[in-house]
Design brief:
Blueprint: E1 2-10, H1 14-21, E2 34-39, E3 44-51, E4 54-66, E5 70-78, E6 81-89, E7 95-103, H2 107-115, H3 118-137, E8 143-144, E9 147-149, E10 152-154, E11 158-159
Antiparallel strand pairs: 1-7, 2-3, 3-4, 4-5, 4-9, 5-6, 6-7, 8-11, 9-10
């Protein structure tokens, strides 16, 4: 399993960056290769993506979520990946976004691509596009302000677009 850690600073307050990240169905707008993300319930996501030219689908469960701080997940079927994105206010209206991703390449093509750093560059590009996306908007397309601990939802409400 390969581990990737990438960080970017975005010129929006932590709440704006976090709220946008909770809008999983918007990921295809800034994540290259992600065709769709369907939120099945508060903690389950169905993903479809093209990875190194290969179609991949998987389900993921959000295992930890704390408003303005962290969203963590792990795959429960399909393509193996686990991740965590954290949000840290760094003064004024700036936020540091750190994405940690562990992926298990399948097959010769994916393993070769991983060895050549394709996944690393993909994550770098996705974070760069997230930065451009949220900075150009200035406001999130919505948000979810609940908490998840150990896969269990504690409270939560959806924030409508533009609040």
């Amino acid at each position: 399993m390969s581990k990737i850690v990438e960080t970017t600073d975005v010129e929006v307050p932590v709440r704006v960056a976090y709220d946008q990240w909770t809008q999983f169905e918007e990921f295809p707008r800034f994540m290259d290769g992600v065709r769709s993300v369907e939120q099945l319930n508060d903690t389950t996501l169905a993903w479809n993506a093209e990875i190194n030219g290969i179609d991949r689908s998987w389900r993921a469960e959000i295992s930890e979520q704390e408003p303005d701080t962290v969203v963590a997940w792990h795959s429960t079927s399909g393509a193996k990946n686990d991740g965590r994105v954290s949000f840290e206010p760094i003064g004024g209206s700036r936020t540091r976004v750190t994405l940690e991703l562990e992926v298990e390449p399948e097959g010769v093509v994916e393993k070769a691509g991983d060895a050549l750093g394709f996944v690393q560059r993909q994550v770098e590009g996705d974070l760069r596009r997230f930065k451009e996306y949220i900075e150009s908007r200035g406001t999130p397309t919505g948000g979810w302000r609940g908490e998840v601990e150990g896969g269990q939802v504690e409270g939560g409400h959806k924030v409508s677009e533009g609040r």
